[in-house]
Amino acid sequence: MALAEARARHAALLDFPLTSDADDRSLEALGRWLMRFSPAVCVQPPRSIFLEATGMERLFGSVKNFRDRVTDALAALHIIASVAIAPTPGAAWALAAFGQTQWVLQQKNEIQPALALLPPDALRLDEKPLRLLASLGVKTIAALLRLSRKDLAVRFGAEILLRIDQALGSAPEPLTYLVHRAPIAASLEFESAVESLDAIWLAVQTLLGGIAAQLAERGLGARALNLTFNQPYGLPVHKQLQLARPSRDEKAMFKLLCCALENLQAREGFISIALAVPVTQRLDGQQTSLVNAEEERDAEALDHLIERLRARLNDDVQWGELVESNLPELACRTVNYAPAGRAIPSALRSAIDVLRPLRLLPQPRPLKVIVMPSQSRDGHPVSFTDNGHVHRLEHIRGPERITGQWWNGRLKIRDYFDVLDAVGSRYWIFRVAQTGRWFLHGIFQ
Amino acid sequence: MPELPNPKHRPIVPASPMGPRRLSPWAYADLDVTSNFSFLRGASHPDELVYRAAKLGHHAIAITDINSLAGVVRAHQAAKASGIKLCIGSRLRFDDAPDVLVWAKNRAGYAALCRLLTLGKRRAEKGQCLLHLRELLDDSKGLLAAMVCRSIDPENAEPDPAHLHRAATALKEVFGAALSVAISHLHGPLDAMLLRHADEISRAMDIPLVATNQVHYHDEPRHALQDVLTCIRHGCTIHEAGFRLFANGERFIKPPEEMHRLFRDFPQALQRTIAVAECCTFSLEELRYEYPDEIVPPGKSSTTYLAELTWMGAAERYPQGVPQKVQNQINHELKLIAELKIEPYFLTVYDLVRFARAREILCQGRGSAANSAVCFCLGVTSVDPNRIDVLFERFVSAARDEPPDIDIDFEHERREEVIQYVYQKYGRQRSGMTAEVISYRGRSALRDVGKAMGLGLDAVDALAKTMDGWQGGAPVEEQVRQAGLDPTDKTVALVIALTTELLGFPRHLSQHVGGMVMTRGLLCELVPIENASMPDRTVIEWDKDDIDALKILKVDLLALGMLTALAKAMTLINHIYPADPPMELHTIPAEDPNVYTMVSDADTVGVFQIESRAQMSMLPRLRPKEFYDLVIEVAIVRPGPIQGDMVHPYLRRRCGLEPVHFPKPELKAVLGKTLGVPLFQEQAMRIAIECAGFSPAEADRLRRAVTGFRRFGDIETFAQQFIIGMQQRGFEQDFSERCFNQIRGFSTYGFPESHAASFALLVYASSWIKRYHPAVFCCALLNSQPMGFYAPAQLVRDAVDHGVQMRPVDINHSDWDCTLETPVDLSIFPTSDKRTWGQGGPVVRLGFRMIKGMAIAHAQQIVNCRRQHGAFASVDDFHAATALPVGTVTRLSQADAFGSLPKSRRVALWETLALPEQRTPLAKPPQDSQDPALPFMTTGQEIHADYGTVGLSLKGHPVGLLREQLNARRVTQAAEIWNRRNGSWVRAAGIVIIRQRPGTAKGIIFETLEDETGIINVIIQPEIFERQRSTARHASMLQVDGYVQRQGLVLHVMAVKLHDLSEMLTDLLVRSRDFH
């Protein structure tokens, strides 16, 4: 059913886009978490996790108890799961997928009777053979097993026999288990509280050396660093740092930490320091392009500068960004710095910018202006008075007419003039067409 | 859904009264004007621009859309009405040069412009135009030009001075004194620089400057809409649009004095606008339409040729001699045709019909002039003037200076042949399809504006949905709130206001369903021609209103499914009875009482027009007895008479419950045939003249308003005049309002008597075939799918009910099409019992076309192989002989097409699956170890599988399988319900085969259910529908609890509660045909 049709049927329908990648990552995370129940965990996206149960009865008292503990743990996490135990992965999958969780199979000869009444779908077959089996009226595994193996192989290929055998235990099914991965972290404990900053710096350097080695071993770079300083009595002091690009360069990271730790207070000293890398990114095989090497270097240098500024200013780094807008005061805005997305000005932008002052007043300032012909609503300015100073205008250009953003309810029309006074200062002034009032908006350097 | 007036036919009348035309003392003319026919750029209609310029006292105006002349006819009509001079031109955009404005000095210049645009459009994709400056320079006679020195898109860089210089040099060389350089004061930041560049070029090369304002809308407030259009064009929101928007709103038509103030430094540029405008003497009035002349053989005049053909045809039509009445009529009509000089029109139509007949393509004319004696003799229609008399003058009147109107319906599967014949006969330079201007309607406008204003898609959709069929203006606050939006929100208010403005704006050109234009001279010198999205089609830039305004000949070539079915049916009949004279539409025995009895019993599944539920419930009340009754039947179940509440008065009079009287004695001649009740469009017009005091010219304007040519005013503008006119002449207000309501009704589905008569003939022909050859009828309808009201399952079931024997699809017997089998047994005589009509007749064998997903090429491969190889002996034999892909064989076995082997569906599938995809000549079929242990199928499973693969089952009805469950729910069978008393409570259940929500029924839903014993008609009142919307709209199987409502032979169940039983059908593929 198409989404549009589903929506038409149920107005209150909520829909979410399918995020297979994220789902697969979550499944893997769940698999890692389940490693507390069994050392051998295999994750098979989109929705299966296999746990090796052999030997677990000794740890959990019985296989049944093992299953119940896993089931309860998942329920506590609000994960709706169906857990089954069988001598083969295929049989366990079939029982779990079709909700036959009351079975705890321990012998291979128990499998066939347990699966007999389940549909062939329980054998993890492809969609096409399943559809054909349904057309043939083969509704249960028992009916499927009544057909000759040779005939089945001719029609559906060897795959179907393999799946049957894997479920019944007459063919092996090797699983790929998750490999245990320790978090990247290092810590140092002191015999007594250490107050000396030099000693602390030294300790941090040692820790950095440790994690850099770990990162190098896995081909990763750090995208964030977490430092924890434990005091003998007070609460631990935490520092978190974000890195603009993945790094395992000890010196660069140390410099950055120095910036961040400038105002570290060590009144009572610290008894231990821990450094962890919560976010990593692959860093191997970095390719530097030949053509843009220089630009790339500039960008990297800029990133390092910004990293250091952020470390020192507690992340409060703003970035000026050009905005395509016909209204001059909206043509630039400050945003929280994000490493990507520095826009290149368009051709029109470059053409207009020549005609615009570099400095705009934060608020346009009201002016008194004498126009020619006088009283005319659209006469040209002859002189203006600003803060008591009279500027006699030698040269004017304009008007350039800019209409407000009607969609924001701003309907005023401004006529801008680019004016030069007798002493050679250049200003950008405008008149509001509707009211005839004048303002100074910018000053040319 | 109710049909609403189509905004694209917006009348071309000024928004406010114009007053006398006054020229401004400040001489100026806007020559660079972009209308909304530069799609998603211009923010005003061409006529709005023209009226505005006229009102401001401009001396002239040009419409210069981008590479297009699509809006000029509308502008021309407005210019004519307001007295301002209009220059016809275009803004040419080149691949290799700055934009150039061109205006047609004279007819030759106009032709050159059309040729150039045709060239650019024909080689580009649909809707695009690709031009090079060279092409303008090569063919520029009669054109004035102005080079534009600034870009029309604000986000683009301004043209480079060197580039401008080069283009100016090339243009100057060819255009000489006819060239100008266009300059504008748009209050932009670069104005001064651009003016300087232009001025330099002008001085250096001695090219005069011309002032323009790059007009994009007629008045200042449209600035906002123009910004929104820009956003729609770029697919962005107003917040993201940035530099793509104009920085200010100066591109409107300014008062001439303002233009003089702006250009005070360039008075010569203002003067030049007048000089250019004066030089453009061309007007669209000069476009004289000329009929193509190859339709008359050399050495003959069209008058003598038409007369010759007519009398020849008459002799053929009436082998016993032409009746005196017909002779008189022919003479009379020929005289009138000669007076109006429209012989070529009839000859053109004749030519098309002759071609179709030579190719054995069934066709029939309809429309105003089609039911004339001349057209009958020419073979354009089969409605015998002896059988019906419609006054010819009523359609082709000497007072009306316009070509008559004939539409020709062709078999829907073969119409393309006729269209290609026209292209081939007249060439693509001289013929093309009419355009259809696709305009913004409520929903599309709201969607686009909402998106541009940054509303979320969900919000826009929700709003669009609650405002179904909205026609602008302030929506009810409640509706906005229902959509989850705040009606007081400024953005929402803006969206609604802007959407109202956008309604009726053209969005793109498409092709008209069948209107073709043919000319004597080159069509591409009359109007630009572009490619259609369909291959081998070319379309002109003007729509039917434009063509009508310029009096250009158009013939509508339409596609009609029933003609395909009739053609196939007659071929089959001629094949079965080779001894009888071949059957044609006009040789079908007329006025057969058995046919009328069948029709009166509403036994009309599959019959043209009268098969719909509304028609079927009318038939037993009307009880047609002769041909004219069918004409009335066709016309009466239409929005016109229904909205005019004329149906019941007519029925009462017909049953003698009410005396026949005429609103005015003079109307007896007009209304006599319909017992004094106006049912046809012509009669309503007649009443306008006789009873409401309309002059014939006014009545004609009203007629045009009704038939969709709304340029001259909306129907509503006539309402007061009509009703007051009737009251003044002593008619009751009630009757006059009803008469006008009827006219309103006609406007949505105009149905004049002449159309009804043409349709009635097809009704009769299809009824006759159904009555006497039910097997043929079923077979022909199945072979013409998709068409008509019912799905194949219902058609087959109806045939079976009439004693026709059906056989399933089979690899050893079927063709692609359904076929007829076994010789006819003439010893069995059908009685009046309908169940005997098909007995002894041919048997219908379903064809491979019934199998879903089957390819025609594969079916033909099977038939060819069978011819050489003989009957197939096994699945393997079949596959070896035909070498079809295994997938196709699988489909055949799943469709149970191996029944004659005999192999059950499952066994055939089992064997199919063992087939090798690639066959080697020596490979032996794989030997199965034993009989497969496959379970047998129950009848229920068989029926399910049949529906899944063929869409119907000859083994039983799916609802029959559920009878026990339904009995438990205390559901009554359809056949039993027909015996119930009026008002009794029943529970009915069945597959939903049809859903309808006619616009005339005030929100009432009609659903038709089918079970194994028959059909049940259900009526769902709006309150019930609102309560159970989802069930009513989507259930594939429905249980309805309600009351029986019967009137004579008509029976409905009035729903009180609905139950969705779709679950019971699960894998069954059943889809209703939904008509909204």
Task: Describe the protein in words.
The complex is a heterodimer of chains A (about 450) and B (about 1100). Chain A is an alpha+beta fold and about 450 residues long. Chain A has helices at about 5-10, 20-35, 55-60, 65-75, 90-95, 110-115, 125-135, 140-145, 150-155, 160-170, 195-220, 250-260, 295-310, 345-355, and strands at about 40-45, 50, 185-195, 220-230, 235-245, 270-275, 280, 320, 330-335, 360-370, 380-385, 390-405, 415-420, 425-430, 440-445. In chain A, the strands form 4 sheets. Chain A has a 6-stranded antiparallel barrel with strand order 10-11-12-13-14-15. In chain A, helix 5 (about 90-95) crosses helix 10 (about 160-170), helix 9 packs across helix 10 and helix 11 packs across helix 12 (about 250-260). The radius of gyration of chain B is 33 Å and the shape is globular. In chain B, the strands form 4 sheets. Chain B has a 7-stranded mixed beta sheet. Classes of the chains: A alpha+beta (about 450), B alpha/beta (about 1100). Chains A and B meet through helix 9, helix 14 and strand 12 of A and helix 7, helix 18, helix 37 and helix 43 of B.
Number of helices of chain A: 14
Largest sheet of chain B: 7 strands, mixed
Which secondary-structure class do the elements of chain A indicate? alpha+beta
**Contiguous runs where pLDDT drops below 50 for at least 5 residues of chain A:** none
Strand content of chain B: 5-15%
**Widest beta sheet: strand line-up of chain A:** 10-11-12-13-14-15
Provide a quick synopsis of the model.
The complex is a heterodimer of chains A (445) and B (1076). Chain A has 445 residues and is an alpha+beta fold.
Notable characteristics:
heterodimer, A: 445 residues, alpha+beta, six-stranded antiparallel beta barrel, five-stranded antiparallel beta sheet, elongated, B: 1076 residues, alpha/beta, seven-stranded mixed beta sheet
